Recover the amino acids of this structure.
């Protein structure tokens, strides 16, 4: 196996290689540091790389490996999205408005370290995690390794570009309205938005009024399951998530839907529709019972529930920054909308979540999994939304990604599975949505699809 094959092997396989002595932790880290220095000049997927700290962590991991220590991610490098705290390193949120570096790791980072991971660096994000593209005044644009003229998605765009280009075996993302699933879709990765509260988000608890969660962006389903086993704060399936991923899913009842939630204007592209049709054929061939049926999305769900929580959450995040005058104009515009929503109003909005859940999740009385397109269209071109205000940008980007935010509002798990390339040569996906707390079924089905339609061998032109 040459160095490029190792770089694209994924976290779980690298963990096995480290245990077997096929490679050492310092050598694995240096492999990524060399690739980042060479490739990331074009992509700009990292805001910062922790070169010397990572070298110390890799050396310490190797000492433990040599002593016979075994941890799930011992010696495996992991990239961290730049809205998650790493002790003594700035958390910039894609902005120059940030303050002093935190003195402690976020809980999810602490758990990754406890599992043996080497923290490689922090990945680029749009300002305040607002957009499905990753372009900022403070740090510039991050490019998609499949097409440098296009965005990798957002807000976990740097994480997506880094893993896709073989600059990290796995990355931490966060998802408040699709921010793991969008870049995973457009970068050709398996991305999982876990059940709310599955993966800790402390010290930023209740981010975006409960919409946002942390989760993995990975080359394989097993990698994502390994991440969950290392970080879960809730009881998982019997034997753990890796075991669940490797179990046969049995004959599932699956509903396919391309319905865009009411009040969102958009259309499903021809390549995305073709992926859904192909998924129907494959799932039937795999023995599942497949129907076309739409979830019951309330007409008030987007503007009466999802967006108020998002806007208020952005305002709360902005209010905590010491240099708000440095924010981009469209970020300030969204924050102003959030400021107009009082605590009493947001409490009333959040009180409607049980009614929203009851309607959207009623489809699970009859099916086990709902499948939608990952996105309705492919990614925007770099710079496409420059010089636009917050509301107009949001209206335009929503048509590309209408299927995702609803499941942040309900809190249930959802994953995107790579499904070939679109007409522009950029990856696309299908989205698997599960019952509350049922990541196990999504991992099992995702792994079954992965075996039938492998994707991890694909490498983008810029890699």
């Amino acid at each position: 196996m040459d160095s490029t094959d190792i770089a694209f092997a994924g976290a779980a396989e690298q963990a096995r290689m480290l245990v077997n002595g096929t490679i050492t932790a310092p050598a694995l880290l240096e492999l990524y540091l060399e690739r980042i220095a060479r490739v990331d000049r074009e992509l700009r997927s990292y805001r910062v790389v922790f070169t010397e700290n990572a070298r110390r962590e890799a050396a310490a991991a190797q000492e433990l490996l040599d002593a016979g220590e075994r941890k799930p991610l011992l010696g495996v490098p992991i990239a961290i999205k730049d809205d998650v705290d790493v002790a003594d390193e700035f958390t910039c949120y894609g902005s120059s408005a940030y303050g002093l570096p935190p003195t402690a790791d976020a809980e999810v980072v602490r758990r990754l370290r406890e599992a043996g991971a080497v923290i490689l660096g922090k990945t680029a994000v749009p300002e305040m995690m607002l957009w499905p593209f990753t372009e900022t005044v403070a740090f510039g644009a991050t490019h998609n390794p499949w097409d440098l003229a296009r965005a990798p998605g957002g807000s976990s765009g740097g994480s997506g570009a880094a893993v896709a280009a073989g600059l990290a075996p796995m990355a931490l993302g966060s998802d408040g309205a699709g921010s793991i699933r969008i870049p995973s879709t457009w970068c050709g990765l398996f991305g999982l938005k876990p059940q709310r509260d599955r993966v800790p988000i402390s010290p930023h608890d209740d981010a975006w009024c409960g919409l946002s969660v942390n989760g993995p962006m990975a080359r394989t389903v097993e990698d994502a399951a390994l991440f969950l086993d290392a970080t879960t704060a809730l009881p998982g399936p019997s034997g753990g998530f890796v075991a669940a991923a490797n179990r046969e899913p049995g004959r599932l009842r699956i509903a396919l839907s391309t319905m865009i939630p009411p009040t969102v204007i958009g259309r499903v592209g021809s390549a995305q529709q073709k992926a859904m049709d192909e998924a129907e054929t494959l799932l039937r061939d795999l023995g599942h019972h497949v129907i076309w049926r739409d979830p019951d999305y309330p007409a008030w769900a987007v503007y009466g529930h999802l967006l108020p929580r998002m806007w208020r959450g952005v305002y709360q995040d902005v209010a905590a920054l010491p240099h708000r005058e440095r924010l981009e104009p469209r970020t300030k515009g969204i924050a102003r909308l959030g400021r107009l929503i009082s605590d009493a109003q947001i409490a009333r909005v959040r009180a409607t979540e049980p009614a929203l859940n009851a309607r959207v999740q009623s489809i699970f009385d009859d099916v086990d999994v709902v499948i939608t397109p990952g996105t309705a269209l492919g990614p925007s071109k770099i710079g496409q939304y420059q010089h636009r205000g917050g509301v107009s940008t949001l209206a335009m980007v929503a048509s590309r990604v209408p299927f995702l935010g609803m499941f942040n509002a309900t809190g249930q798990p959802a994953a995107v599975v790579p499904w070939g390339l679109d007409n522009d040569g950029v990856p696309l996906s299908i989205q698997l949505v599960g019952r509350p707390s049922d990541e196990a079924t999504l991992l099992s089905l995702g792994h079954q699809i992965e075996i039938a339609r492998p994707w991890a061998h694909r490498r983008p032109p810029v890699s």
Notes: Residues 3-452 form a domain with the Amidase signature (AS) enzymes fold (CATH 3.90.1300.10). The longest strand covers residues 414-421. The longest helix spans residues 25-43.
